[in-house]
Design a protein that fits this description.
This protein has about 130 residues and is α+β, with helices and mostly antiparallel strands. It has four helices and six strands; from the N terminus they run E-H-E-H-H-H-E-E-E-E. It is elongated and about 45 Å long.
Amino acid sequence: MTVTIWHNPKCGTSRNTLAMIRATGVEPVVIDYQKDVPPPAELARVAAAVGGAAALLRTKGTPADELGLVGADDTTIIAAMARHPILINRPVVIGPRGTVLARPSERVLDVLAAPLPGDFTKEDGEVVRRPA
C-alpha cells in the first residue's frame, strides 16, 4: 500500500516524519498540502480518522481564532481549511495501518508496515529508538 504524507517542508516535525518514513525503505507520496489543497471530502475523511476537525485544526500561527474556528463544528472547520490550508495541522500520514497526525513525529510508526531498521536521530538530536 502507498504511504502518503501531507507535508510542510518548513516544519521540522514534518521533515522528521518524512525522513522516518524513508528510513523504513518507503518512498511516500508527498503532498505539499498548502499548494495542493485536499478537497473538502478528503479533509473530512482524514479529520474523522484523527479525532475530528478540531484535532486536525492548527491554531498556532494561523487565523483560527480570528475566523472563530476554536469550538466550531466540523463542517465549518473543514470549509475554512479548504479556503485557508494553513489551518491544516501537519504532518498527516496515511499508511497501510491507518491515518495519523504525526505530532510527535514518531507517531508515524503506528501506521507504517515496516519498523525503523535502527535508531533514528531527529534534526534536533533527539533519538527515536527502534522498537524491540
